[in-house]
Amino acid sequence: NGPIACEVLSYRAPKPLRRDAKPVQQEMTASPSPWDKTSKTKPKPVVKSSVVEKISPQAEMFANRLKKNVRHLAKWARKNHLDCYRVYDADLPDYAVAIDIYGDYVHVQEYAPPADIDPLKASERLDEVMQIIPVVLGVSNDKVALKLRQKQRGSNQYESQAALRQRFEVRENDLRFWINLTDYLDTGLFLDHRITRQMLAETSRGKAFLNLFAYTGSATVYAAAGGAKSTTTVDMSNTYLGWAKDNMQLNNLVGEQHQFIRADVLAWLNEPATQDLRFDLIFVDPPTFSNSNKMEGVFDIQRDYIDMLHKIAGMLNPGGEIFFSTNRRDFKLDAEALKGLDIKDISKATLPIDFERNSKIHYCWRIQKSA
Asked: Which residues are bridge partners to 323 per DSSP?
């Protein structure tokens, strides 16, 4: 008389093998492994794959583009002490996926195809993508996770997608983070904010730091590692707040100076006890839209950001500043409506090399009270 734990497994049947088909591994060679730190003179690894279906000329173009990207970005990632980075982001319109490397694993996000695209054709192209990735990247199939990326409404961004609880550790700028590729829509680390996090670390020494809509607390880890005298991490999800604590512990950043608060950020900003709190550095990266049952009312970033930023600015110590970010593609910031605040657009400065194809992945500003 209660819920029964279950899983839904969805499979796409491959097209029948053609008689003139040749093994994929005979048609393309694997790129040097993104994680191979040995000499360049070492022979390329021989990738054994069970995939034998002949790929289309368009799929060969995709494979070649992926190989080219990996060859360039893997070297850059090793130089910058990164285990996780993006290697493909819908470079070819017919193959509308984003491919991210997380340590020894690969995370694939299929962008929802437009309504005018034949669903069968989109499915066939995705099949090709999933056949090619293990061969080109030299990984086993069980280390490739696939998700459909589409607009999320309400509390969907917080809902569990699975219950495998398979997490692993990755490194970014010599800091460590827990990643989960299966259980949630996002992985636990927004790769496009890598430079933003580094800026927070460089700015945080000796400061009281506040992280709002904190998600898994990666910004808090950077601020604490950068020498913040205290950190306060606020999020309404117990799951992500616990994840944030685990990330801090993973980096040996523990102590009473690091506070974690479960709360709806907008309601928390209005609480009497919050009015006397003051911070030197605040990071706020709100959801685009939320009507979660854990919060009061509905939050829309374009409609509500002005009131929110004024309230947050009221929590700044003299000389303090806010890093404000959003990933809403059509977001417009009205400087006139934010009178009394000095605003500097740092969107381009915070765009990593591996996200250069997508200049609208996020917008970011540094905000201070006017003198």
From this structure: 283, 366
> Token pair for residue 350?
């915070």
Answer whether 244's CB lies under 8 Å from 234's CB.
Answer: no
Q: What is the identity of the amino acid at 207?
A: K
**CB–CB of 210/232 below 8 Å?**
yes
What residue has token string 């790929």? 55
**Calpha distance 223→227 (Å, rounded):** 7
Amino acid at 237: S
Instruction: Give the C-alpha distances (Å, rounded to integers) separating 189 from 95, 101, 179, 336, 351.
Output: 24, 12, 7, 33, 15
The DSSP bridge partners found for residue 366 are 323, 344
CA distance 210 to 220: 8
Q: How far is CA 116 from CA 86, 113, 250, in A?
A: 28, 8, 46
Cβ atoms of residues 223 and 304 within 8 Å: no
Q: What is the pTM of this model?
A: 0.84
pLDDT digits 0-9 by tens, 251-265: 999 999 999 999 999
The secondary element (H helix, E strand) that includes residue 345 is strand 341-345
CB atoms within 10 A of CB 5: 5
> In terms of Cα–Cα distance, which of 287, 355, 293, 286 is closest to 323?
286
Question: Distance between CA 244 and CA 230 in Å, rounded?
Answer: 15
Beta bridge mates, 144: 106
Beta-carbon count within 10 A of 223 CB? 29
Residue 341 forms beta bridges with which residues?
A: 369
Question: H-helix or E-strand containing 123?
Answer: helix 119-137
d(Cα 113, Cα 306) in Å, to the nearest integer?
33
Interatomic CA distance for residues 230 and 220, integer angstroms: 10
The pLDDT tens digits of the residues spanning 76-129 come to 999 999 999 999 999 998 899 999 999 999 999 998 877 777 888 888 899 999
User: At 177, which helix (H) or strand (E)?
Assistant: strand 175-180
Q: 């303090």: which residue's tokens? A: 320
